[in-house]
């Protein structure tokens, strides 16, 4: 199996674990803030990040990025959290679907939400806005960007679902897969023990903490 195939397979494994498990498995790191949500709860995204740094209210760099993005990539756009314009809409979505783009994560707003949902294209954003944008300002492609306190580098792996979005460094993917698998196995054991009558206090060893706080 080639490196590209291995990478694609690993991305799919991370997607199946889900964002919350991956976040916990890598030491509670890499979660974008809770303001970034899918525009439909069934949306899931997984792929390699192509990062775009844009000026608020301008989408020229998105037009340029669509000339460079490859099938399976996730566009990760820092629009500086600006919510009074929607730099992404149904026309971009049509092109993204045709090119096999895996999805969009944008620190900003989008528009044409119903059309995007109907096309089945995963979009994670901070809000919706009907207002349009200019197409004049320069930006940057494939540079490190920050959303909240999380830095996303080109090529990092982005995993998103109803719970939120988490970023995995590309050089840590296999370690995170192993940790995620171990976490899933541990939680499966917990659930089995709870079905047998155990409590979360017992399973997590919280008795002493409760006694110390006089919680009888």
UniProtKB/TrEMBL annotation:
Report the source organism. Answer: Paraburkholderia nemoris
Q: What is this protein called?
A: Putative 4-hydroxy-4-methyl-2-oxoglutarate aldolase
Protein keywords? Lyase
- Give the InterPro entries listed for this entry: RraA/RraA-like (IPR005493), RraA/RraA-like_sf (IPR036704)
Cofactors needed by this protein, per the record, are:
a divalent metal cation
- Which Gene3D superfamilies does the entry mention? Ribonuclease E inhibitor RraA/RraA-like
Keyword Heme attached: no
Give the source's domain of life in one word.
Bacteria
Q: Which GO terms describe its molecular function?
A: 4-hydroxy-4-methyl-2-oxoglutarate aldolase activity
């Amino acid at each position: 199996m080639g490196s590209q195939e291995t990478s694609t397979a690993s991305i799919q494994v991370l997607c199946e674990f889900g964002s919350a498990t991956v976040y916990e498995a890598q030491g509670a790191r890499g979660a974008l803030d809770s303001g970034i949500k899918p525009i439909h709860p069934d949306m899931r995204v997984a792929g390699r990040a192509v990062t775009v740094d844009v000026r608020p209210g301008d989408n020229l760099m998105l037009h340029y990025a669509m000339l460079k993005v490859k099938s399976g990539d996730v566009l990760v756009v820092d629009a500086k959290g600006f919510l009074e314009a929607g730099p992404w809409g149904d026309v971009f979505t049509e092109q993204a679907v045709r090119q096999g783009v895996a999805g969009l994560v944008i620190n900003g707003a989008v528009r044409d939400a119903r059309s995007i949902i109907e096309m089945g294209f995963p979009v994670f954003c901070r809000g919706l806005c009907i207002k349009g944008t200019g197409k004049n300002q320069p930006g940057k492609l494939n540079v490190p960007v920050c959303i909240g306190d999380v830095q996303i580098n080109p090529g990092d792996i982005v995993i998103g679902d109803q719970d939120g979005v988490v970023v995995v460094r590309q050089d840590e993917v296999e370690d995170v897969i192993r940790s995620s698998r171990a976490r899933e196995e541990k939680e499966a054991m917990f659930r089995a023990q709870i079905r047998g009558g155990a409590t979360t206090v017992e399973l997590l060893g919280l008795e002493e903490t409760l006694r110390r706080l006089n919680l009888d």
